Hints:
Strand content: 15-25%
Structural class: alpha/beta
CATH topology: Arginase, Chain A
Largest sheet: 8 strands, parallel
Shape: globular
Distance between the termini: 10 Å
CATH class: Alpha Beta
Number of domains: 1
Radius of gyration: 17 Å
Amino acid sequence: MSTLVIHHPSYLDHLTPVGHPERPDRIRAVDRILEHEKFQSLERDLAPVAALEDIARAHPMSYIDSLHRLSPEEGTARVDADTTMSPGTWEAALRGAGGACRAVDEVLTRKVSNAFSASRPPGHHAEQERAMGFCFFNNAAVAARYAQSRYGIDRVAIVDFDVHHGNGTQDIFWADPSVMYCSTHQMPLYPGSGAASETGDANTIVNAPLAPGEDGTGFKEAFEVVILPRLEDFAPELVLISAGFDAHARDPLGGLNLTEADFAWATRVLMDVADKHGNGQVVSVLEGGYDLEGLARSVAAHVMTLMTG
């Protein structure tokens, strides 16, 4: 079977202020690299608009409604100091969540081996009732709840290697024994959460913070010593990857020194976990990554690893 990439032109319509790092050029860079000849065997699909009831498994309907009301017909609406909505943001956010759900459908019905949802805006900072950190809907969380509701998956793991801690994903699954959230991230750094002592009410939150300047050696150690043993014990039936590439050495928003080879390695070991416990079921969703060259090269390495699994 093949690897699926899900994308949509509407991701370009989420506009941010001039100079904002989370800009449409990010998706242009991803789309451009995945047009290379070596990716011609990819399956490709357009992200649908998510059903509101699917989003509502991760975010209360009151929050969804308030975000919709905030969506401007022209200009911009500010959510916080870093996060704004343009007229195209609402559809892009709906399709980001919808693309993650479509990826789950295609993987869990065995139409493809694995899938990568190349969407923006990102999602892992979106808490149950709070948009922040460039994020509106938590795509990985929506996908996890969708897999549980639609396909009866009992244990889902979400593994996040973005340079920033996914406070939103941690918030949503803090007390949920059926979802394990694992994160490597730089600390201290925005948003300030993600200490190793933050383990959740059900002990299914696994944080492995990295010091500024850490490179692939420390990153791999965090996986091998902290994350992979916990995943083995949890035995997930589905592995979701919050694939942020801003831990790359080129990225302007972080201070880690990872390379695309490190992201490929992490992808491979997570595929191995999925092969052992979940019939190889892996769904990846794009999170951060703000240096265009670093982002493109990292996505290429990530997707190529998925393809060669």
